[in-house]
Design goal:
There is one protein chain. The chain is an alpha+beta fold and 406 residues long. It is 46% helix and 20% strand. It has 16 helices and 13 strands. The protein has a seven-stranded mixed beta sheet with strand order 1-2-3-4-5-7-6, sandwiched between helices. The protein has a six-stranded mixed beta sheet with strand order 12-11-10-9-8-13, sandwiched between helices. Helix 11 packs across helix 12 and helix 12 packs antiparallel against helix 13.
């Protein structure tokens, strides 16, 4: 078999193969859809982004790629050439063309889909990692991502996948969402949490809750060198109790520990992240009907953060989170001015650019530590400085107070 780049000369044979495989590709059910796809293939051919494999005169497989989006767009192999290396030849050629210093993505079938095993196995063979669940053309799919060599995100997503699988084995009827810094592009190992929300259709049993409450420790015991399991935080409860902020049997994971409790609620910041940026990891999509936070709700949350800063950050301790007070203030001001929710790093950069912080050198230091926590985790001077941040935090809180009074 040989690899070639398709041109308009091959369009007839290409579309004959697409017709043969159309049942495997949602969105190609009608003649109009097939004609639209034909025009798409011709555009890819013009750009040199249509890769084929043939054996003699027979077209064995086809693939479309996008170098701009750094993604695999479409892959199909003739039934007569499956398990004979055609798909691997296409994958190898595509990965030569795409930028391996960036994330490469592809969308394929979900694990429970009968069509999925071969395609998922192929992508995993080439180093792709299963990530969030999506829908395309009204069909349930999953994004697979190939991360750059040595990428922190690859290990994190593998841990997210293992945690998702473990929760799903305990709770058969649930939807799991990822939100927070992971979906805002602001995760920093050594500082950030991996925030998840697990919503069930019916209350979990006491036995299920007992299995879940210490699941972080269970997975960590099996993989003691994994740096991510202790970073997971969040709540597990029924969707109804979550939406209504009602009592329920709840499993809570936090920074200071875990417990079975009876209530779990989001603030407006978390709800905004969940609804606008949150990624579905498992189960059906059940966010429909949930309301985004209003500006008044967000202002109430900012006021609550402000009161905590006045109460607890007059003096600061030897912790990265002492720097975090400055970033919380920046995010509060950003939200008050824009009505939007931003990642803490982005809000800190914005506050610096706007000249809002009266002690900019401390905000610069906070951003540096936030961006590189593992670089500074053993640096005594960083923690010496953290202990002195109380006055700077309060000066910046004065700016937040004025924003709240407007």
């Amino acid at each position: 078999m040989e690899v070639f780049y398709g041109t308009a000369r091959e369009i007839t044979a290409w579309m004959q193969l697409v017709r043969l495989l159309r049942a495997e590709f949602p969105g190609l059910e009608t003649e109009a859809a097939l004609e639209e796809h034909r025009q798409t293939v011709l555009r890819f051919m013009e750009k040199g982004h249509a890769i084929g494999v043939r054996e003699g005169d027979a077209l064995a497989g086809v693939m479309l790629i996008s170098t701009r989006l750094n993604m695999l767009c479409c892959l199909g192999v003739h039934p007569d050439f499956r398990r004979k290396g055609a798909a691997s030849l296409l994958m190898a050629e595509a990965l030569k063309r795409l930028d391996n210093q960036r994330e490469i993505t592809v969308t394929t079938y979900r694990r429970e889909d009968p069509k999925g095993p071969a395609a998922r196995g192929l992508y995993e063979k080439f180093g792709f990692v299963p990530c969030e669940l999506v829908e395309e053309m009204g069909y349930p799919n999953q994004v697979f991502t190939k991360f750059p060599a040595g990428s922190e995100a690859e290990g994190r997503w593998r841990a997210i996948g293992r945690m998702t699988e473990a929760i799903g084995e305990i709770l058969e009827d649930c939807s799991i969402y990822l939100y927070g810094s992971c979906v805002l592009g602001d995760f920093r190992r050594g500082w950030s949490d991996i925030d998840i929300l697990v919503l069930t259709g019916k209350p979990m049993s006491q036995t299920q809750a007992e299995h879940l409450v210490n699941l972080r420790q269970t997975l960590l015991a099996a993989e003691p060198e994994n740096p991510y399991y202790r970073s997971f935080e969040g709540g597990m409860l029924t969707r109804e109790a979550f939406v209504k902020n009602a009592a329920d049997r709840v499993v809570y994971w936090g920074t200071s520990g875990q417990r079975i409790t009876d209530r779990y609620a989001f603030d407006g910041f978390c709800r905004g992240e969940l609804l606008e940026k949150g990624k579905l990891l498992l189960g059906p999509e059940i966010r429909g009907g949930m309301a985004l936070p209003t500006r008044e709700e967000l202002k109430r949350d900012v006021t609550r953060y402000y009161e905590l800063i006045r109460q607890y950050a007059q003096q600061t301790g030897r912790s990265f989170y002492s720097y975090g007070w400055l970033l919380d203030i920046a995010r509060g001001i950003y939200t008050l001015r824009t009505g939007l929710v931003a990642a803490k790093t982005a809000a800190g950069d914005w506050a610096l650019a706007q000249g809002l912080c009266p002690v900019p050198e401390e905000l610069v230091a906070a951003l540096e530590v936030r961006q590189n926590p593992e670089k500074y985790r053993d640096d005594p001077a960083t923690f010496d400085r953290a202990e002195t941040l109380g006055p700077a935090v309060q000066q910046f809180a004065d700016v937040l107070q004025k924003e709240l009074q407007k």
